[in-house]
Amino acid sequence: MTDEAPDPPADMPSRPETPPGRDAQDRLRPRQARFVAEYLLDLNATQAAVRAGYGARNAKSQGSRLLKRDDVRAAVDAAIAARARRIEVSQDRVLLEYARLAFSDMRRFMDWGPRGVVLKDGGALDADETACVAEVSESKTAAGGTVRLKLHDKRGALDSLARHLGMSREAGPAGEAARGPVLRNRIDLTGGTDDAGN
Prior knowledge:
The chain is α+β, with helices and mostly antiparallel strands. The protein is built from nine helices and four strands; from the N terminus they run ααααααββαββαα. Helix 2 (30-42) packs across helix 3, helix 3 crosses helix 4 and helix 6 (91-102) packs across helix 8. The radius of gyration is 26 Å and the shape is elongated.
Protein backbone atom coordinates (compact mmCIF):
# COMPACT_ATOMS: atom_id res chain seq x y z
CA MET A 1 0.00 0.00 0.00
CA THR A 2 1.38 3.44 -0.92
CA ASP A 3 1.14 6.67 1.06
CA GLU A 4 -0.05 8.59 -1.98
CA ALA A 5 -3.72 9.47 -2.30
CA PRO A 6 -5.40 8.05 -5.39
CA ASP A 7 -6.16 10.43 -8.24
CA PRO A 8 -9.74 11.76 -8.16
CA PRO A 9 -12.10 10.41 -10.79
CA ALA A 10 -11.92 12.31 -14.09
CA ASP A 11 -15.48 13.64 -13.73
CA MET A 12 -14.78 15.04 -10.23
CA PRO A 13 -13.59 18.66 -10.28
CA SER A 14 -10.24 19.24 -8.61
CA ARG A 15 -10.00 21.63 -5.70
CA PRO A 16 -8.79 25.05 -6.88
CA GLU A 17 -5.44 26.25 -5.62
CA THR A 18 -5.53 28.62 -2.68
CA PRO A 19 -4.81 32.08 -4.05
CA PRO A 20 -1.81 33.97 -2.64
CA GLY A 21 -2.77 35.99 0.42
CA ARG A 22 -5.51 33.55 1.24
CA ASP A 23 -3.83 32.31 4.46
CA ALA A 24 -4.55 35.60 6.25
CA GLN A 25 -8.15 35.42 5.10
CA ASP A 26 -8.52 31.84 6.35
CA ARG A 27 -7.96 33.03 9.92
CA LEU A 28 -11.02 35.28 9.78
CA ARG A 29 -14.60 34.41 10.58
CA PRO A 30 -16.65 33.69 7.42
CA ARG A 31 -18.39 37.06 7.30
CA GLN A 32 -15.12 38.91 7.88
CA ALA A 33 -13.50 36.93 5.06
CA ARG A 34 -16.48 37.79 2.85
CA PHE A 35 -16.02 41.48 3.77
CA VAL A 36 -12.36 41.29 2.65
CA ALA A 37 -13.34 39.71 -0.67
CA GLU A 38 -16.06 42.31 -1.23
CA TYR A 39 -13.80 45.19 -0.19
CA LEU A 40 -11.30 44.21 -2.89
CA LEU A 41 -13.93 44.78 -5.58
CA ASP A 42 -14.18 48.54 -5.15
CA LEU A 43 -12.30 49.46 -1.94
CA ASN A 44 -15.56 50.80 -0.50
CA ALA A 45 -15.85 49.60 3.10
CA THR A 46 -19.52 50.57 3.48
CA GLN A 47 -20.66 48.71 0.38
CA ALA A 48 -18.40 45.77 1.18
CA ALA A 49 -20.02 45.48 4.62
CA VAL A 50 -23.51 45.45 3.09
CA ARG A 51 -22.53 42.85 0.48
CA ALA A 52 -20.88 40.74 3.20
CA GLY A 53 -24.18 40.57 5.09
CA TYR A 54 -23.78 43.25 7.73
CA GLY A 55 -26.81 45.50 8.32
CA ALA A 56 -27.16 48.38 5.88
CA ARG A 57 -28.05 50.80 8.67
CA ASN A 58 -24.69 50.31 10.42
CA ALA A 59 -22.62 49.40 7.36
CA LYS A 60 -20.52 52.57 7.36
CA SER A 61 -19.39 52.20 10.95
CA GLN A 62 -19.06 48.41 10.64
CA GLY A 63 -16.88 48.73 7.54
CA SER A 64 -14.69 51.26 9.32
CA ARG A 65 -14.39 49.03 12.41
CA LEU A 66 -13.50 46.01 10.30
CA LEU A 67 -10.72 47.87 8.50
CA LYS A 68 -9.26 48.90 11.87
CA ARG A 69 -8.97 45.29 13.02
CA ASP A 70 -5.41 44.03 12.66
CA ASP A 71 -6.48 40.62 11.31
CA VAL A 72 -8.85 42.10 8.71
CA ARG A 73 -6.32 44.77 7.67
CA ALA A 74 -3.64 42.07 7.32
CA ALA A 75 -5.95 40.01 5.11
CA VAL A 76 -6.79 43.05 2.94
CA ASP A 77 -3.11 44.02 2.64
CA ALA A 78 -2.08 40.45 1.80
CA ALA A 79 -4.79 40.17 -0.87
CA ILE A 80 -3.88 43.52 -2.43
CA ALA A 81 -0.19 42.58 -2.45
CA ALA A 82 -1.00 39.21 -4.03
CA ARG A 83 -3.10 40.92 -6.71
CA ALA A 84 -0.28 43.38 -7.45
CA ARG A 85 2.18 40.49 -7.86
CA ARG A 86 -0.20 38.60 -10.14
CA ILE A 87 -0.69 41.51 -12.49
CA GLU A 88 2.85 42.85 -12.02
CA VAL A 89 1.77 46.26 -10.76
CA SER A 90 4.01 48.20 -8.44
CA GLN A 91 3.88 51.73 -7.09
CA ASP A 92 6.78 52.56 -9.39
CA ARG A 93 4.89 51.32 -12.43
CA VAL A 94 1.78 53.33 -11.49
CA LEU A 95 3.88 56.46 -10.89
CA LEU A 96 5.64 55.96 -14.22
CA GLU A 97 2.27 55.85 -15.98
CA TYR A 98 1.14 59.01 -14.17
CA ALA A 99 4.42 60.67 -15.18
CA ARG A 100 3.88 59.74 -18.84
CA LEU A 101 0.51 61.49 -18.77
CA ALA A 102 1.59 64.40 -16.59
CA PHE A 103 4.54 65.36 -18.76
CA SER A 104 2.99 64.75 -22.17
CA ASP A 105 3.52 67.47 -24.75
CA MET A 106 1.16 68.05 -27.69
CA ARG A 107 4.14 68.90 -29.89
CA ARG A 108 5.10 65.22 -29.83
CA PHE A 109 1.79 64.36 -31.51
CA MET A 110 1.16 67.14 -34.01
CA ASP A 111 2.56 70.15 -35.78
CA TRP A 112 0.56 73.31 -36.28
CA GLY A 113 1.10 76.66 -37.85
CA PRO A 114 -0.16 78.98 -40.59
CA ARG A 115 -0.76 76.03 -42.94
CA GLY A 116 -2.94 74.17 -40.44
CA VAL A 117 -2.62 71.16 -38.17
CA VAL A 118 -0.85 67.93 -39.12
CA LEU A 119 -0.88 64.83 -36.94
CA LYS A 120 2.36 62.90 -36.68
CA ASP A 121 2.38 59.30 -37.89
CA GLY A 122 1.12 57.01 -35.11
CA GLY A 123 3.73 54.43 -36.02
CA ALA A 124 6.47 56.91 -35.19
CA LEU A 125 5.25 57.41 -31.60
CA ASP A 126 7.02 55.53 -28.82
CA ALA A 127 5.34 53.67 -25.93
CA ASP A 128 5.44 56.70 -23.63
CA GLU A 129 3.68 58.80 -26.25
CA THR A 130 1.01 56.27 -27.22
CA ALA A 131 0.18 55.75 -23.53
CA CYS A 132 -0.91 59.41 -23.42
CA VAL A 133 -3.45 59.13 -26.25
CA ALA A 134 -7.06 58.82 -25.08
CA GLU A 135 -8.77 59.19 -28.45
CA VAL A 136 -8.07 59.68 -32.13
CA SER A 137 -11.01 60.20 -34.46
CA GLU A 138 -11.66 61.52 -37.90
CA SER A 139 -14.90 62.65 -39.49
CA LYS A 140 -15.31 63.36 -43.17
CA THR A 141 -18.10 65.30 -44.81
CA ALA A 142 -18.70 66.65 -48.27
CA ALA A 143 -17.49 70.03 -47.03
CA GLY A 144 -14.28 68.65 -45.52
CA GLY A 145 -13.62 66.96 -42.24
CA THR A 146 -12.04 67.09 -38.84
CA VAL A 147 -9.41 65.14 -37.01
CA ARG A 148 -9.52 64.94 -33.23
CA LEU A 149 -6.65 63.94 -30.97
CA LYS A 150 -7.38 63.83 -27.25
CA LEU A 151 -4.78 63.09 -24.60
CA HIS A 152 -5.51 61.68 -21.15
CA ASP A 153 -6.06 64.16 -18.31
CA LYS A 154 -2.69 65.84 -17.80
CA ARG A 155 -3.79 67.92 -14.81
CA GLY A 156 -5.32 64.91 -13.07
CA ALA A 157 -2.05 63.00 -13.53
CA LEU A 158 -0.04 65.95 -12.21
CA ASP A 159 -2.35 66.23 -9.19
CA SER A 160 -2.01 62.51 -8.48
CA LEU A 161 1.78 62.68 -8.71
CA ALA A 162 1.88 65.75 -6.49
CA ARG A 163 -0.30 64.06 -3.85
CA HIS A 164 1.83 60.93 -3.91
CA LEU A 165 5.06 62.90 -3.59
CA GLY A 166 3.71 65.14 -0.80
CA MET A 167 3.70 68.27 -2.95
CA SER A 168 -0.02 68.91 -2.64
CA ARG A 169 -2.07 70.47 0.15
CA GLU A 170 -4.35 67.42 -0.02
CA ALA A 171 -1.41 65.13 0.69
CA GLY A 172 -2.58 64.71 4.29
CA PRO A 173 -0.41 63.75 7.25
CA ALA A 174 1.79 61.39 5.23
CA GLY A 175 2.78 64.25 2.92
CA GLU A 176 3.37 66.88 5.62
CA ALA A 177 7.05 66.06 6.16
CA ALA A 178 7.83 65.94 2.44
CA ARG A 179 6.06 69.23 1.73
CA GLY A 180 8.43 71.30 3.90
CA PRO A 181 11.55 70.83 1.74
CA VAL A 182 9.53 71.27 -1.46
CA LEU A 183 8.13 74.56 -0.19
CA ARG A 184 11.60 75.73 0.97
CA ASN A 185 13.08 74.89 -2.44
CA ARG A 186 10.30 76.83 -4.15
CA ILE A 187 11.00 79.80 -1.87
CA ASP A 188 14.74 79.59 -2.54
CA LEU A 189 14.17 79.53 -6.30
CA THR A 190 11.83 82.51 -6.31
CA GLY A 191 13.54 84.52 -3.57
CA GLY A 192 10.06 85.07 -2.12
CA THR A 193 8.17 84.10 0.97
CA ASP A 194 6.22 81.00 1.81
CA ASP A 195 2.44 80.82 1.80
CA ALA A 196 2.35 82.09 5.40
CA GLY A 197 4.34 85.23 4.49
CA ASN A 198 7.61 84.09 6.13
